Amino acid sequence: MRMEKLRATGRFLRNSPKVSVFDRRLSSNSGKSIHSSASGYGNGFGKKCRDDVTRKWNVRTCFGLYGYQGKNFRDCMERGVLEDTRRRIQHRGFGSLPEKVQRNASFSTLNSDDISYFKGILGEKNVVEDEERLAIANTDWMHKYRGSSKLLLQPRSTEEVSQILKYCNSRNLAVVPQGGNTGLVGGSVPVFDEVVVNMSLMNNVISFDKVSGILVCEAGCILENLITFLDNQGFIMPLDLGAKGSCQIGGNVSTNAGGLRLVRYGSLHGTVLGLEVVLANGDVLDMLGTLRKDNTGYDLKHLFIGSEGSLGIVTKVSILTPPKLFSVNVAFLACQDYFSCQKLLVEAKRKLGEILSAFEFLDSHALDLVLNHLDGVRNPLPPTIHNFYVLIETTGSDETYDREKLEAFLVYAMEGGLISDGAIAQDINQASAFWYIREGVPEALMKAGAVYKYDLSLPVEKMYDLVDEMRTRLGDSANVVGYGHLGDGNLHLNVSTPQYDDKTLAQIEPFVYEWTSAHRGSISAEHGLGLMKANKIFYSKPTATVNLMASIKKMLDPKGILNPYKVLPHSIDSHS
Asked: How far is CA 23 from CA 39, 62, 430, 433, 565, in A?
């Protein structure tokens, strides 16, 4: 029986398309063209997967395994996907409706004297009243939230941020800190007429220590620019996001962004060593330490990591960056059921250990969306229907050791029936293409129509139960899609429909929050609460905890001018 199962798996791995699934080649003098095998994904799809003499599985001939030198695959992806999507997206409803809130009557309105003051400290060029530029600053990238701010300020230094906030606090002018404006919950755009403080001009690298790997930079540095800077130094950022071409490190810290490397390097609470923050009254809080150990009192920087600019504006960041490792492999695998995905994760952690750098999953609905809505994307695997797909990345320093470790893992997974098919990238283009399938899901969803997006943390064994229940609940009226960071229990639940309607929303909410709460999950894994989920916080946090948060907010921002209407529920926010 076992041999029959192995032979069946062997057939899956040998049967491959007659033409390459990608229209890319390496240079003509390369011996590792993607056309060197029938499927274009490794040497062995056209060969036998087992040695006829030893009857043992041979991962090299089944998968075509190669190590890569000196590149990070995701950083070599085609650029501009996010920006292109932002240009082309139609104005339509996405996700749950913005919360209905009333403008805080205690906030002042902008006048000509205010604008004159800001021009005096920032210069005319950095005080923006242009309607087109304000329209961009007022709208989130999903075109779901729109404010009506009449002023955008662009400080160039911490001192200028301090002067802005000191003045706004004295005048009771509400403020919205803004970075790359790539958020999904309305946290980075005005709700009403708040003054936008955009950090883009504070984009300098202050220092980098090649011995410790500690980077100190300003908050407006674009994540991808930091990745490039560190790559030239032989290091990498511990954070990687699909929005890296636009998002800024200050916004990343303020939302405690998770991303694709969390399974390997942990969250920003672990990698951020220090912050400089400007409080609502203009005071500068210097916590910009570069020490890995410092037990002198309360570690206050953690208050600002994930506070979404509601307690202070982050102006500088000190972060620990790992050395760049040169042996990288990317595999795209198929599983027949979610239990196999879970088991594969457990075994990957045990057998790949320290070289495991990413473990992502998507269901067949997500893959179909990518194949149908993104140009130039093909299925890396033969056209057999699978229910789930897993992307695994390994990163290490010893190509031979890493290859042997991955081979042993794949042999185990094939023999145990955890995977039914798979491909290992043969060159950097293929590895980028694998990653584009996973990272392209949000773009494909947007092209498909209206989408209700939910970013949830759940126990791994329960994650896909919610997807199944939502499908049962909605029936044929919607396409329910599940994908995300399986390695750290983060589900991206998306409900795709031709158009937005209240009936569908009523079927989703509050059910999705109640289900998450009942299974002791979090309603926000990595996107934050913003405006969208401010009133939903009680699904994840007890009243006593939320009340303490409100007390901290009251202490640090007594007038409530910083990013109002966000994060905390309006029912207990004393400033609403």
From this structure: 12, 22, 10, 11, 49
Is-contact 180 83, C-beta < 8 A? no
pLDDT at 573: 63
pLDDT at residue number 427: 86
Q: E strand or H helix at 436, and its extent?
A: helix 428-439
Cβ atoms within 10 Å, residue 5:
13
Reference 136, options 98, 78, 89, 201; nearest CA is: 89
- Reported in sequence order, the residue ranges of 27-140 that DSSP labels E, i.e. its strands, are 127-128
Both structure tokens of 331: 């595999």
3-class DSSP state for residue 309?
coil
Strand partners, 363: 388
Residue 512: per-residue pLDDT: 97
* DSSP run (H or E) holding 315: strand 313-320
The pLDDT assigned to 95 comes to 45
Quote the Cα angle for 406-407-408, to 5°: 90
List Cα–Cα distances, 549 to 255, 304, 368, 436, 572, in angstroms: 16, 12, 42, 39, 10
Rounded distance, CA 426 to CA 380, Å? 12
Q: How many CB atoms lie within 10 A of CB 85?
A: 16
Alpha-carbon distance of 416 to 319, in angstroms, equals 41
N-to-C CA span, the chain: 67
The token duo for 280 is: 């609502």
Is 467 in a helix, a strand, or coil?
A: helix
All residues at 6 or more sequence positions from 71 whose CB lies less than 8 Å from its CB, including other chains: 328, 428
Task: Give me the phi and psi of 271, to 5 degrees please.
Answer: -100, -25
Q: Which residues of 255-287 are buried (b: 16+ CB within 10 A; e: fewer)?
A: bbbbbbbbbbbebbeebbbbbbbbbbbbebbeb
67: alpha, beta or left? (left if phi > 0; alpha if psi -120 to 50): beta
Tokens of 257: 């962004």
Q: How many CB atoms lie within 10 A of CB 133?
A: 13
Which neighbouring-strand residues pair with 287?
275
Residue 261's Cα: distance from chain center in Å?
9
Task: Give average pLDDT by consecutive 10-residue segment, the chain, 576 residues.
Answer: 34 31 27 28 36 41 40 35 37 48 95 98 97 96 91 98 98 98 94 98 98 98 97 95 92 93 92 98 97 94 98 98 94 96 96 94 97 94 91 94 88 93 89 93 94 95 97 96 94 95 94 97 93 95 96 97 96 59
Beta bridge partners of 235: 323
Buried b (16+ CB within 10 A) or exposed e, 474-492: beeebbbbbbbbbbbbbbb
Q: How high is the pLDDT of residue 223?
A: 97
Query: Which contiguous run of DSSP H or E holds residue 2?
Result: helix 2-14
SS (H, E, C) 10-24: HHHHHCCCCCCCCCC
- Phi and psi dihedrals of 402, rounded to 5? -65, -40
CA gap 274, 302 in Å, rounded? 9
CB atoms within 10 A of CB 4: 8
- Please answer whether residues 272 and 253 qualify as being in contact, where contact means their C-beta atoms are separated by less than 8 angstroms: yes
